[in-house]
Every structure is written in C-alpha cells, then in structure tokens.
Design brief:
By secondary structure, the protein is α/β, with parallel strands linked by helices. The chain has 14 helices and 23 strands. It has four domains: 61 residues, Nucleic acid-binding proteins (OB fold (Dihydrolipoamide Acetyltransferase, E2P)); 203 residues, Vaccinia Virus protein VP39 (Rossmann fold); 142 residues, OB fold (Dihydrolipoamide Acetyltransferase, E2P) (Beta Barrel), CATH 2.40.50.1070; 63 residues, no CATH class. 30% of the residues lie in helices and 26% in strands. The protein has an eight-stranded mixed beta sheet, sandwiched between helices. The protein has a seven-stranded mixed beta sheet with strand order 10-9-8-11-12-13-14. Strands 1-5-6-4-3-2 form a six-stranded mixed beta sheet, with no helix packed on it. The two termini are 25 Å apart.
Length: 543
C-alpha cells in the first residue's frame, strides 16, 4: 500500500488534460507533474488518496524520447508552461489526441481530426500579459505570475511566451515603484495601491499599451513614470490607470483613465484594423489567430451569397474578417463595450454589410428565429463553458443553417455541443485542432457541421447511443457521491470552481449567495480530483 514519502519506480504511460503524467503502481494511478509519456522515474509520493496518488520526480532513470531541455528557470514553480519539458512535435501530438478523445468519448463522434495546425511561433507569441504585483517575504516588490492553485507570486519579468521588451517595461516600473515607495496590493488586508500591471502590444503596428491596475483613483508621481516610460520605449502610445477597488480576484475594473496618449492601440488581424482598449477581447496569438480564422473561413465554404450569423462575436473580428466573402454579417455579443468596438471596427474598415446586436447568444437567436431569420452559416465562438443547450436547439430546429462552424478553446465542451447539434439534424464533417498556446495545456478546435439530408439516419444513430446518457446531477448528488466514495465533504463553491475549469455550464446551487461571507480559498487538489471523478461518473466529462 502506498504511503506518503514512499520512493517508487514508475513508468509514465499517459498524460492528463492538465498535462500531468500518469503511471500505475500496484493498480493505483499516480499523477506526476513535469513528466512525459515513456519516462522511467524514481518518484517520491507526496499525497495518497483512496484511488490515486500524487508524486514528484526524484530521479529520471530513463528519459522519454519526447523530453527536451526546459530552459525556463521558473517553469516548475509558475506552472503556466506545463508542456515546456517536451518537444513541440510531441506537444502537438498530445493535443491532437486530446481533441480526438474528447470527441470520441464525450461526443460519441468517431471522426479523425485533420492533422493539427501548429502555431507559427512557439515563443514570444503573446501580445498581452497581466502581472500581479505583491510584496515578497523580504519586503521587496515582486512582479510575475501566480503559482498554481495559489496567489503566491513567482517572480518572472522575462517570460519566454511574452515579447522580450515586456520584461524591460516591467523592470522599469518595478524600479519606479521602489524609488517612489509606492505601495502594492495585499489581498488579505485589501490595502496597498498597485494590484496588477497590464501590457498589450499591436504586433503589426508596433503600438504598445501600459496599464496599471490600482486599488484607488490616483497614482502618485504619475508624470515621472510617464516620462521614464516614453523616453525608454517610444512605441508606448497609451498609458492608463484601471481602477479596481473591489475585493475580488477579477483583474480589471470597469473604469479606465488615460494618463498619456490614446485610449486604445491598433492592430491588424486578417486585414481588418482593430482598436484595442484594456477591456477589449483579442486573441493573444495574432499570427495563430489568423491561421485559425482562415481555417474557419475555409470550413464555412463562402461564396459571397451567404447570410452569416456570428454568435459570441466579441469585437467582431471573426465576422469582419469574413465580411468581404459573404452577403451580410450579423454579430451578437453580450458585452456592451465589445459591441461598440465591433461597430467602430466595421466603420473603420469601411465594412457596410455587418451589423451587431447586444444580447446573450441564446436570447438573440430565439428572437431572430421568431422573426424568421434563416442564416446560411452560423459561426459559434463560445467561452470555455461552451454553448447553452437552448441556443443549440434554436439553431438546429428553427434556424436550420446549411453549415455551422464552431471555434472552441475547450474541446470537451465542443464535443458535448457538437453531440447536441447532431441530435438536432447535423453531422460533423470536419474537425481540426489548432495550437494557439504553445507550451501550455490549451488547444483550439474548429468544427464544421453540415445539415443532414436524411433525418432518419440521425434518429437511428442517436437511439443506439441513448444508453450512454447518464443523469444530470445536482450539486447535492455530486456531494453525496464524493462523501460516499472519498469520505469527505465538498462545498458547492468547490464544485462550481471545478465545473468552470472543465468548461461545464454553470447553475447556481439553491443556497448560492452573491457574496461569500468568508475568505475563499482555491479547491484543494484532492477535492478537485474527487469532484472530477464525480463528473466523470455522471457522464459530464470524459473518462
């Protein structure tokens, strides 16, 4: 029987969606971060639970053929680049397998994806970064990233995923804060001024934005900072304050104030010029996004005659990039500021066949369908939690477009949503993984669905699969399952947290409150695994 601190020999045979290697020891699964399939290891057990355990690498006895040198000095502590220790070819292969397995297990769709499209760049590809600012144990200011499942800052101004000059900007601001003794934020006391630093770069234009997120309304000695930044970095065209005085983990507040230059920076994506504020959504890998949108446009099979409905359209970049190849674009987005950005982007680019509505996707689709709108193509680009089931039913049963193109940052929810569309008269024709986030455990998926010409085929297939469908559990049922199997209780907030991380639809628990009475701590790893086990048991996520 495994015990904490045991030293065992372990061969890694698989890798999880969180990028931890997995091996089996005496029938028990052992999760080992930083390992690769094929590694033969000496592993120190750090935690033992009923059906699985966690370990750390003590010695690599025989490295996997996939291993490569990890040049980042803090990657193990930071946790952001969870695949940096393997070759990029192996990373792409793993991500391809994740997409394939999600569609096979969750969607019951056995279509082999097209070969994964790699990112044009594997380093320095991010055009945006957000850095927490805190005091370290030695009383000095730390700027970097939070360690996994904690709010402990791992100091790192020069991350390989960001442009090198981001680190130079951060170093200058760090020196400024130290020189002028400007306080930094403390989460426990809710005191201190500077919470985060936000940097954004227009790759095609070269324009740079610097935004300081503060727990207040004014930044002391702001003129001195402006002078230092603009003298050292002429490409900085916007310096702003974002005021966030709430007791929250959300990084940005709603109010931005320009200290220097413009309220936005510009960039060009797929030939469309866009203006970006600190609050604007924009793909962090611009060259990767161009590849992603080209694939989506190719899947759509545009002829110039189509009415295209772009749901979850954000600032309109997908629809606007296709506007010159369709008759009309209708975009829908729930965030008011994003809708205004989309309208401005259309006007700025002399695009006159696009209009944008501010509404949630499900509500807008229902209204448009009742008004008799029948788009030829629907483009879906939902958040990680995926699409509302009612939206998918409206699209399939009332709008009945010839083709649906789904772009998803979560292949598990994409598989679930594709299965729902298959129940409503569609079939998956093409499936493509696109790597937008090299060295991390994230991958984009593009799905093409086409309306079935023989509805009977769909009905027969889905009847065969009904045995796979399990109950949709309440929070109480999940709690009961965990209590019965693992012997401990889990709070509904922990269930909600885990559901968010795996991209499931969120529903409030009956006793949910808008504001927590006590300080909230992230869900402990053993409870994360127990909740995921429950979700797997009820068929909500893949085995």
């Amino acid at each position: 029987m495994l015990r904490k601190n045991d030293l065992i020999s372990l061969t890694i045979t698989d890798i999880t969606n969180e990028a931890s290697g997995v091996g089996r020891y005496e029938g028990i699964a052992v999760f080992v971060p930083g390992s690769a399939v094929g590694d033969q290891l000496k592993v120190r057990i750090v935690k033992v639970l009923k059906n699985y355990a966690y370990g750390i690498i003590e010695t690599i006895l025989k490295p996997s053929a996939d291993r490569t040198e990890d040049v980042c000095p803090v990657s193990r502590q930071c946790g952001g680049c969870s695949l940096r220790h393997i070759s990029y070819a192996a990373e792409c292969r793993i991500k391809q397998n994740w997409v394939t397995e999600h569609f096979r297990r969750i969607g019951k769709i056995d279509l082999a994806p097209l070969p994964i499209q790699p990112s044009p760049a594997q380093n320095a590809y991010r055009n945006k970064a957000q850095y927490p600012v805190r005091l370290g144990p030695d009383g000095k200011i730390q700027i970097g990233f939070f360690a996994p499942r904690s709010h402990r800052v791992i100091e790192n101004c020069f991350c390989d995923l960001q442009p090198p000059f981001f680190g130079e900007v951060l170093t200058l601001i760090q020196d400024f804060l130290e020189q002028y003794r400007i306080s930094v934020y403390d989460e426990q006391s809710h005191q201190g001024l500077v919470r985060h630093l936000f940097l954004r770069w227009g790759e095609k234009t070269g324009e740079v934005m610097v935004c300081l997120v503060i727990n207040g309304q004014q930044l002391p000695y702001a003129d001195a900072l402006i002078e230092k930044l603009t003298a050292a970095f002429p490409h900085i065209v916007s310096i702003q304050l974002n005021c966030n005085t709430a007791k929250t983990n959300v990084i940005l507040g709603r109010d931005c104030r320009v200290l220097y230059g413009k309220p936005t920076i510009s960039d060009i994506l797929c030939g469309v010029k866009v203006e970006l504020s600190p609050l604007s959504f924009y793909q962090v890998n611009r060259s990767g996004a161009e590849k992603l949108y080209r694939i989506a446009a190719d899947f759509a099979g545009l002829t110039g005659k189509e009415l295209l409905l772009d749901l979850y359209c954000g600032a309109g970049t997908i629809g606007l990039s296709m506007a010159h190849r369709v008759r009309e674009v209708i975009g829908v987005e729930i965030v008011k500021e994003a809708v205004e950005n989309a309208k401005e982007n259309a006007q700025r680019n002399d695009i006159h066949n696009a209009r944008f509505l501010c509404d949630d996707a499900a509500g807008a689709a229902k209204t448009l369908a009742e008004e008799g709108l029948h788009p030829d193509i629907v483009v879906l680009d939902p958040p990680r939690k995926g699409c509302d089931a009612a939206l998918l039913e409206t699209i399939g049963q009332q709008m009945s477009p010839e083709r649906i193109v789904m772009i998803s940052c979560n292949s598990a929810t994409a598989a679930r949503d594709a299965a729902i569309l298959c129940q409503n008269g569609y079939r998956v024709v093409k499936l493509q993984a696109v790597d937008m986030f090299p060295r991390t455990a994230h991958v984009e998926t593009v799905v093409l669905l086409s309306r079935e010409t023989n509805p009977l085929t769909v009905e027969v297939r889905m009847e065969v699969e009904t045995g796979e469908v399990k109950e949709h559990p309440t929070y109480k049922r999940i709690q009961e399952y965990v209590q019965e199997k693992y012997g401990f209780k889990v709070h509904t907030a922990y269930i909600a947290e885990v559901k968010r991380t795996v991209g499931l639809d969120m529903h409030k628990a009956p006793n949910a409150v808008e504001q927590r009475k006590h300080e909230y701590h992230p869900c402990p790893p053993e409870k994360v695994e127990a909740i995921k086990d429950a979700l797997r048991h009820f068929g909500l996520i893949a085995e």
